[in-house]
Amino acid sequence: MNKHRLVCLAAFAGFVLMAWGVPPIPTPWVPTHSDPQSEDYAGTSSCASCHRKESERAAGSQMGRSIMLPGQTYLDAPPLGFQRGPYAYTLDRDGNARLTVDDGKRQITEPIFAMIGAGEFFQSYLLRHEGAPYRAAVDFVTARGGLELDYEADPPHSLEEALGRRHSENYVRNCLACHSPASVTAESIDFEHRPSGNTCEVCHGPGAKHELLERTNNPEQVGIFNPGRLSPADESDFCGQCHTTAAQMRAQNAKGTRSVTSQPYRLETSRCWNPGDRRISCTACHDPHAPIVRNTAAYDSECTACHSSSTTNASRQDKATATCPVGKHDCAGCHMPKVTVPDTPIVYADHRIRIAKADAPFPE
After folding, report:
1. Model confidence, pTM
2. Do the Cβ atoms of 183 and 190 come closer than 8 Å?
3. What is the full DSSP assignment across 318-339?
């Protein structure tokens, strides 16, 4: 099976598994399971009035750019073309985002209602044709600076099939459940009255009550959820609602490099994983309000919070926190190797922290 497809299937399978009985985490707010009313949300601008720094940084992060709607511009680029046999594609990603496919005799042009992904590696497109949702047959692939066939693109037998794969509304809901959770309600998808993308209120919960309490100077109640106060184990499951939890991955019986698509699962298979130690939690290394830091050496201070002469007690013979005898710089570059999942442009940092030997088989 195409591994690019597995990236999205892993997330979809997570929702299916929870429906079969893998429960959501025991917190008062779970982005992918809660269904508040539209009026419960305060909106990003309200959050920014007090938390401007966090709001501005989050807007430029990969999470903050998880979806683009018509009228928004994340990728400043001219129209793109792609030829697929007799079918010519033209993708416009400006304020009137649209896809045109032409077979030389006639053409179909449809507006794009959602651009999925920040475009750091690739970006896919959702549109409607004759009322039905389609996933476009072409993606923007950043490394190539142009369009390539989407992993779902079947050999077309008509202009309509060349446009992309037709889907159900439920498919769209499953996509947006992680790329724009607050927009998905029990009855519909609402970009107009509810936050789109992964904004403040996706992780912290609806903020209207919090805003009211702040304005009325009621310090005894907070009215907002802070995932930063979760235990490392619960935090792993909280982030795993979109990054696939360890329990979901185990239930899928994931094998091989496919498993690196779940950072929580790989982290929890590390020898040094401790569900009660904040030094090895998701947010110990990653600031959810900021873009991902790609320079692996920048994480050295997080590594040495455990692995240093001051934290290692030789008498304990604690190999899990031993200092590295080889190097003192760029720890993650060696101990969290990059893994390329075949047939996808995404390169993952394997979150199973270990002594990685070049000739060793991939650790399950």
Report:
1. 0.85
2. yes
3. -GGGPPPSS-SS-HHHHHS-EE
